[in-house]
Amino acid sequence: MTNDQELKTREAADDKMINDAFQHLLDTYIQSRHRKKVDIITKAFNFARQAHKGVRRLSGEPYIMHPIAVAQIACEEVGLGSTSICAALLHDVVEDTDYTTEDIENIFGPKIANIVDGLTKISGGIFGDRASAQAENFKKLLLTMSDDIRVILIKICDRLHNMRTLASQPANKQYKIAGETLYIYAPLANRLGLNKIKTELEDLSFRYEHPDEYASIEQKLASTQASRHTLFDEFTAPIREALDKMGIRYAIKERVKSPYSIWCKMQNKHVTFDEIYDILAVRIIFTPKERENEINECFNIYVAISRIYKSHPDRLRDWLNHPKANGYQALHVTLMSHQGRWIEVQIRSDRMDEIAEQGFAAHWKYKEGENGEINEDDGELNDWLHTIKEILDDPQPDAMDFLDAIKLNLFASEIFVFTPKGEIKTMPAGCTALDFAFSIHTFLGSHCIGAKVNHKLVPLSHKLESGDQVEILTSKSQHVQPSWINFVSTAKAKAKIQAILRRESREIQKLGEDTLGEFLKKNGMEHTNAAVDKLAALHNMDKREDLLQAIGEKMIILGEKDIDELKGKKREKSTGGWRKFVPFIGGGKAKKDEGKQPELFVVSESFNRKKPIIITDENISQYKFTFCCHPIPGDDILGFIDNKKQIEIHKRACPVAAKLKASYGNRILDAKWDMHKKLYFDATIRLEGIDRMGMLNEVTRVISEQMSINIHKVAFSCNEGIFEGTIELYVHDRDDVRSIIGSLKKVPGVQEVSQIM
User: Which residues does the UniProt record annotate as the domain HD (predicted)?
Assistant: First the structure.
């Protein structure tokens, strides 16, 4: 076959694939409850197809397949209408081609153009070289959200398709995109009620960041499927009988915990897969006889099933009368099965189920009437967007702080608090009296000295609970304290406290700058940025602002050593400085060189960021090992290029790395181990169990004799027959830790074993 024939065959196959995908989109749309505006969708498809003609994705497929897939998700999985489908088809046109937003407006009208414009603003520079590009994009995204919530909904659809096709990206991009997704997009999807999409985003991120753990959990879920089905059938049989007698139309579904949720629980609770008992939950979805009576019908079902099984007194969750801020409504009850297992049952109507799966933003806020008008009838979502607007009005200078402040809002689960006049306020769980004060007014918060909760005097840091009645007490002499930041938990309070402290801090920094200027002038030196940087490094300060602040607060008194540093005079250096970077104990060589600073690897302009860095026994001292997560060989790791162009190594699941992936994704590198059990690393094991004679002796014998592992330090305590303790060890890698934990679990009386660090 000639090249021309091959090209024609490929083009014909591409055209068929594109046409089939678009036809599937139209079929889905026609079956939906939206008004049938097929013409404008076809027009948008033809326009986008022409604009992206000849362009291919990394996977090799025609680029137009991506906008069609995003539109399919928006239509089928989020339930959006023609305006959103058109915007999804056109979402990359302005960014990737010569067409402008004005062109889109002239052809498709202002509404679609506005959404496309919002999506274009967000996308700019997502893989760019600017530090914190993702945080900047997120800021833009939140600003456009309050104009039209469909912008963020389509952006989430776009992200979901990117995650589904992430296999074609290099590993460092996979970690960056997966990290951003877990840090920003999954919580956003959750906040907007897109539960199904949130779960898939989390699982896909987990799959790319920890492929081995993901595969292991998937395999275990598959192997335990039959026993779960049996448990489900036996548990639901009497429930079905009771509901049939009541004449209710219902469906009972099996809900299996997602791999990511299972893994999170395994990490947080230090348990194995076999020790997780809430993998199975049961969902009862019913069609109410009368729509306005659906809440009562939920409780009737609860009463009926609690006659069959005993319910857990502390595990009744009523989201019916107080829906979550994302619109979620259901009644959750935990029942004891006849097999001796607690099983959670979720009771909800078909309407509640639809909102839980597809999100209320799409269904309530933008249900278009016959005249195409938009219904602004959703208070909770607008309150949330308003709070974010306030944070954006005083943006944080640091991208990381900004993302953290927003996340506080995204993750919040709610409590209900009353004002002295009996007005109800929705607040995040875990909030304090000071959070409540700032939620009412900044003046009230900044002059708050305490509160009365249920008529009793409490401090600012008192945590509020649902149903509390709160009165804020103020004093004009009160000022914002730096310590307040440690106990407030809402984004609004944190943002306001930081803004006030920054304002005060600027005044102190100005004083510090004047003091430094006088000191340099007195000693015949110039006040330059280079001089300030030298002094900052001397006093172990990362930023010039920190140095000026410390001078202004008189925490640093400038003197002889500062003059020596600026004039380049050598001073005695303290020994052992480099060891703070490397949490391992080498052989004799490491000890001999302990006083020397090793040559840390510096990333050059020509460095290939797509290739993984390989950490070996020989080059390990060239990298910085962080103490936030204490990685050792065998852990899933990544590299991060810091401000000095040196490479930090983090676990992929490290909370600090999560922020770095979301804010500085272009500096993330793939990293792999190639170690040969020559070096030792620290590991601390925690044990708990029932004490008996010789227990400590047996535990230490298992480690040192059976496993041939060096014990560095042991600390055990016993109270009323229960012992707990920690053992610090020197191990070669993660496999050593797993073997030790496995062996210790076999010691009679040992109940729990986990690794601390």
Answer: 63-163
Q: How far apart are CA 291 and CA 271, in angstroms?
A: 43
pLDDT of amino acid 395: 54
Is 392 in a helix, a strand, or coil?
helix
Instruction: Give the span between the Cα atoms of 178 and 336, in whole angstroms.
Output: 38
Distance CA 614, CA 489 (A): 40
* Whole-Å CA distances, 393 to 143, 386, 481, 517, 531: 10, 11, 22, 33, 34
HSE-CB at 703 with a 13 A cutoff on CA atoms is: 27
> The whole model's pTM is what?
0.72
Amino acid identity, position 277: Y
Split the chain (757 residues) into runs of 10 and give each run's mean pLDDT: 74 87 90 81 91 85 92 88 91 85 89 85 46 58 66 89 91 88 84 87 94 94 91 93 93 93 86 83 92 89 92 84 79 89 91 79 45 42 61 58 61 74 80 91 88 88 87 87 85 84 83 86 81 81 80 79 74 42 46 54 88 91 85 92 89 85 84 90 88 86 79 84 87 88 87 78
Strand (E) or helix (H) holding 407: helix 399-411
CA pair distance 482, 500, nearest whole angstrom: 10
- The Cα angle at residue 320 between residues 318 and 323, in degrees rounded to 5: 95
475 touches 447 (CB < 8 A): yes
pLDDT at residue number 2: 65
Helix axes 379-393, 133-145, angle to 10 degrees: 130
What CA–CA distance (Å, rounded) separates 462 from 430? 10
- The answer to whether 75 and 45 have CB atoms below 8 angstroms apart is no
Tell me how far apart the alpha carbons of residues 435 and 427 are, in angstroms, rounded to a whole number. 9
**Single-letter residue type at 406:** I
Name 674's bridge partners: 616
Q: H or E element: which one contains 360?
A: helix 360-360
**Confidence (pLDDT) at 297:** 92
- What pLDDT score does 257 carry? 92
Residues ≥6 apart with Cβ < 8 Å to 718: 691
Domain architecture of the chain: domains with CATH: 10-168 (1.10.3210.10), 218-363 (3.30.460.10), 577-672 (no CATH), 680-755 (3.30.70.260)
Of 201, 194, 292, 282, nearest in space to 243 by CA: 282
The kind and range of the H/E element at 753 are: strand 750-755
CA angle, corner 88, sides to 208 and 15, nearest 5? 85
C-alpha dihedral, 9 to 12 to 17 to 22, nearest 10°: 170
CA distance 583 to 684: 13
Q: Which long-range contacts (CB under 8 A, 24 or more apart) does 404-407 make?
A: 404/494, 404/659, 405/491, 405/494, 405/495, 406/138, 406/142, 406/491, 407/183, 407/184, 407/187, 407/491
Displacement of CA 75 from its chain's centroid (Å): 26
Q: Would you give the distance in Å from CA 556 to the centre of its chain?
A: 38
What residues are labeled active site? 95-96
Fill in the DSSP letter of residue 292: G
Q: Which two tokens stand for residue 32?
A: 């939906």
Q: What pLDDT sits at residue 562?
A: 80
Closest CA to 74 of 380, 480, 358: 358
Q: List b or e across 574-595, with b for residues whose CB sees 16 or more CB atoms inside 10 angstroms.
A: eeeebeebbbbebeeebeeeee
Query: CA 392, 395, 401: angle at the middle one, nearest 5?
Result: 110
Amino acid identity at 578: W
